[in-house]
Amino acid sequence: MTSTSSGSPVAVVTGAGSGIGAATAVRLADEGYSLVLVGRRQERLEAVAKEIEACGRRAAIQVLDVTDAAAVRAFGLQLERCDVLVNNAGGAIGTEEVETADPADWRVMYETNVLGSLQVTQALLPLLVSSGNGTVIVLSSTAAFTVYEGGGGYSAAKHGQHALAGTLRMELCGRPVRVIEVAPGMVHTEEFSLNRYRGDSARSAAVYAGVDQPLVADDIADVIAWAVTRPAHVNVDFLVVRPRAQAAQHKVHRADA
Ligand code: 8X3
Fold first, then answer.
1. Which of the ends of the chain has fewer CB neighbours closer than 10 A, N or C?
2. Domain-embedded: residue 256
């Protein structure tokens, strides 16, 4: 990992190689943070780091799987500073109903979304506390508070992240770290639906068909940046963010529908 020692506050973003993670990293760099980009794919992280550095900001990369407990611990121990942690790594696998779902898929979703957030938060919490004004972002989903057919495993994991965020906020009360949960609805990113549909691009594209302006990664990055840049005593507990065309989980307006 290259150094971020510049005197600027440091933001660590997991899943920073693409989608919401990459957009958030770039946006936080614009806000004056030095970035530590965490993810599994070095070339993706390097591309995001280049984009940040091209704007005169600092970005270090850390190739890391958030489900690897020992590697996450080691990462936390060698980091010198962390003011903001964005727990973004995660995602959905499969759309099978409960009747036929593969428990292995549920396990992976729980491990990446919930245990990944838990482990990275545990590893960085000492630095967040010692920063004097730390912020933990938990990127959950509207699936964190509702369920839908074929989304059981993902929703279970996102409900788990919601429980983690709420519990942590209470447990940290009195210490200088706030916990902000951001719950996006329909966001059109390069990989989210493609992973959910196991690479089936036609089914993935159909999710957004006819929807007037699904959210994009920059919309969520904008919301995260807003929450992070509130004065330190202001804790935006929980933000639900959907496109205007999605009034509720199943209430999506589609042209020609
Ligand atoms: C993504 C939102 O509607 O696919 O987290 O569950 S949804």
1. C
2. no
Asked if residue 62 is part of any domain, the answer here is yes
Q: How far is the CA of 83 from the centre of ligand 1 (A)?
A: 28
pLDDT reported for residue 256: 75
Of 186, 188, 251, the residue with max ligand 1 atoms within 8 A of its CB, to mutate for a pocket test, comes to: 186
Q: What is the pLDDT of residues 123-148, one digit of tens each?
A: 999 999 999 999 999 999 999 999 99
| Angstrom distance (rounded) from CA 211 to CA 180 | 28
pLDDT tens figures, 38-77: 999 999 999 999 999 999 999 999 999 999 999 999 999 9
- Tell me whether residue 1 is in a domain: no
